[in-house]
Specification:
single chain, about 60 residues, mainly alpha, elongated
Length: about 60
């Protein structure tokens, strides 16, 4: 296997693993899911601004490039 191919594969898998850990951390810090629809929109908005969520999505995006 070519060294560059191996490095890309290991980097992609590592970024994907870090993304999963960051998204798990997001849900652990976010708390329980809300019961009402009005509360769900606020909950979704707070998730979108969560730094762990942003880090996880960034890692996923970079892992597929």
């Amino acid at each position: 296997m070519h060294p560059i191919t191996l490095a890309l594969a290991v980097g992609s898998v590592s970024l994907n693993a870090m993304a999963q850990i960051a998204l798990r951390k997001t849900m652990l810090t976010a708390g329980p899911l809300p019961s009402g629809v009005a509360n769900a929109l606020g909950f979704a908005f707070s998730l979108l601004l969560n730094p762990w969520f942003l880090a996880g999505m960034t890692c996923y995006a970079l892992s597929i490039v």
